[in-house]
Amino acid sequence: MECRKCKGFMVQEWCGELHVEDYIWRCVNCGHLLFPALKPQRDAIKALLEMDAAGCR
Ligand SMILES: [Zn+2]
Q: Is 42 exposed, middle or buried (0-12, 13-18, 19+ CB in 10 A)?
């Protein structure tokens, strides 16, 4: 998996604690997040993107 922004390496992480009960892709280089599964919580996902994955491991 390659980051669309910086072409860095992306890792898959479990992010269930942040209302996105699924795996997400996170760029280890720039921190860009990718949500492969679009669930109803789009507002929560938007909020997550804005807070730049703080506390998401
Ligand atoms: Zn990146």
A: exposed
